[in-house]
Each structure stands twice: as structure tokens, then as C-alpha cells.
Amino acid sequence: MNAEPKLAPPGAGLPKIELFVARIRFAWWRATSNREVISAKFQRERENIARLVKSLDAESASQRVLFPRPRGLEDSSRYWSVWMTLEHLRIVHYGITRTMEALAAGIVLKGSASTAAVKPGPDVTAEVVDEYEQSCDRLLAKAEEITDLHTKVRYAHPWFGPLDAAGWHALSATHLGLHRVQIERIVEQIRAESRAERAAAIGN
Predict the structure, then answer these.
(1) For a pLDDT cut of 90, what percent of the chain falls above it?
(2) Average pLDDT, stretch 78-92?
(3) What is the CA radius of gyration of the chain?
(4) What is the mean pLDDT of residues 75-86?
(5) Which residue did the predictor score with more confidence, 202 or 148?
(6) What is each CA distance from 54 to 62, 115, 119, 151, in whole angstroms?
(7) Beta-carbon neighbour count of residue 173 at 10 Å?
(8) Are 43 and 140 in contact (CB under 8 A)?
(9) CA-to-CA distance for 60 and 200, rounded, in angstroms?
(10) Which residue has the higher pLDDT, 3 or 75?
């Protein structure tokens, strides 16, 4: 079992230059995409994640590993299991769905969005797989249901500032892509550790 690593606290954010680049890229993505393009990207990333999850048995999917941090991911999120990642996505998807629904109704949610508030706990079970898939369905259905995602009112993301419903929809696909990369890194690390254990066993 891996020892608990010392990482930055949840909500610490990204390095300044990295955040600056992320804001530019996200602004470009919003400006050059529409509802259909964004939902299609979301669905592609969802399918990629499903393939990765199916490649693991339950023991591996629940295993926390320390992996190299991809750009866009907070340091505190790089000691997760695959199931923890799905739980995080489930939480975020329902949050984005509620946000889009409220903005479409002209309502600005109370409080502030927080990256620290959507971190998963370590005790996630296999039930999260179906729950995550349901959250994907709900988000896509809500994005399709809303007549005009370019709402007059906005709700702020801690990294990207005030976003209308279209902005939150765009963020959902970008966010899912980031965590697909995270899951790829987790799977790679699990397999690397497994190979190392087998090699050590042979050597002994």
C-alpha cells in the first residue's frame, strides 16, 4: 500500500502561468464551439472513460496511486483511485446541471463554487460507476432541454470567472477531458506498479 503523500491542500489551484494558459484555451473553446460540438466532445470523453474503467477489475479500480500531475489538475487530486475520480465527476456533473438549470430560470445560486468542495472521499465503492453514468445522462439532457444556454445571469467559477449556462456546459466537456487524462495516468501507474511487483517476485 502506498504511504499517504504530502500534497498541496484541496483548492490550492494551479500555478499562475498554467492557469493563465488554461483561461485562454477555455475562452477559445467557448468562442469556437456550440451546443452540439460540446455535447459531442462530452460524449466522446465519456466513452473513453468507460473503456478505461472496464479495463480494470474492482480491486484495481479502488486502488489509490500517486501519478504525475497532468496540466490543469490540482496537486491534491493526484493521489486518487479511478473510483474516486468517478465520484468527483459525479459530484461536479450534478453541480453543473443544477447551475445550468438555475441560470436558465434567471436564478443565481447562493454561495461560491469551490474546487475544494467537490473532492471525493477515499471510501468509494463500485456503485459509483452507475451513479457517474447517470450524472452524465442528466447533464447532457439538461443541456439539450434548455432553449437558450446564453443566459443573461451568470455564476462564477473560481478559475474562469462568471459563466452563463453555455459556459458551464462548455466547462463540463473540458473538465471531463481533463479527468479522462487523469484516469489514463492512474491506469498507467497501476500497471507499472503491477509489473514492478511481478519482476520483484521473480527476482526473489
Answers:
(1) 90
(2) 98
(3) 18
(4) 97
(5) 148
(6) 13, 27, 23, 38
(7) 23
(8) yes
(9) 19
(10) 75
Domains in the chain, CATH or no CATH each: 16-203 (1.20.120.450)
The answer on pLDDT for 1 being more than 50 is: no
Question: Sign of the CA dihedral 37, 158, 72, 69?
Answer: negative
Quote the pTM value.
0.94
- CA dihedral (127, 128, 131, 132) positive or negative: negative
Residue with cell 473503456: 51
